[in-house]
Write a structure and sequence with these properties.
By secondary structure, the chain is mainly α. Helix content is 68%, strand content 0%. Helix 8 packs across helix 9 and helix 9 runs parallel beside helix 10. The radius of gyration is 29 Å and the shape is elongated.
Amino acid sequence: MTNVEKKPEARPPSAQVAPEAPAASAMPAGSPASVSAEALAHGGGAWADFRRRVGGNRGAMIALAVLALLVVVALIGPFITPADPNAQNLRAVLLDPFSPGHLLGTDQLGRDILSRLIVGTRVSLLAIALALLVAMAIGVPLGFLSGFLSGRFDQVVMRLNDAAMSFPPLLLAIALVGVLGPSLRNAMFAVGILMAPRFLRLVRGVVLGLKEETFVEASRSIGTPTWMVILRHILPNTLSPLTVAIAVTAGYAMLSEAGLSFLGLGVQPPDASWGSMIREGFLYFGRSPWLGIFPGVLIALTVFTFVTLGDGLRDALGREERTES
């Protein structure tokens, strides 16, 4: 039998051969390999991806809105109070809520409760900011140096940090305020010192992990100066967990301020804070329970706002890390 040579099948004119995929080496230099697929699809990088994830968390957005409202009230509070928060009127003591001229009633000295709550918003948020500032000023630099330098310095710092965390926080705060004197500034300074070990441990752990990352080792291998490695790679990657810690710790700072003010070690009369208003309302709880209920509700709402915001940030960061991995 003779072999019949097969002719190649004719290809339709409209058919086209798909081009081959480019090799991995053809990728442009500097392409971010750690950016998630969602970030690449929408554009903007990992930070834009993180903002989208936080924006998609309804609880976190509600918490942000409540926090923004509290900040606005704190800023313009003295200009929108219906009455002088410290003006006494002994003819109108312990008025019930919805009384004429006093929407939330008056306290034992005839002072308008709504006005004092509005002014107390600024005091309470200022107390939180002061405590966080002190805690971060102490904990963040020490934690960074401890994690980056390691060795003997790290051992000494961590032993001191463990010793500081072994004391009961409230008792230590009372002792510090007793030495420094009762005032809002001294109370928040004491609370900030108590919160500093938390930030120290957090930052130290993050820096220790970042030192071993491949991109840090690669940057060092090509001769990048240490200060540039810190500024470009280590410091930016500590901001995300630090932001979550700030949101969560703010609620603890508010509870600490309220507790110290309740004991008479925080804000001093005639200034108003939510914690001091609870202390005053406790003495008249049987006659006028709303004196302590109104500031207590605001404290609970604010703490819940900070905790919800911290949970939303943690969820967004966790999803981003899982996607990138």
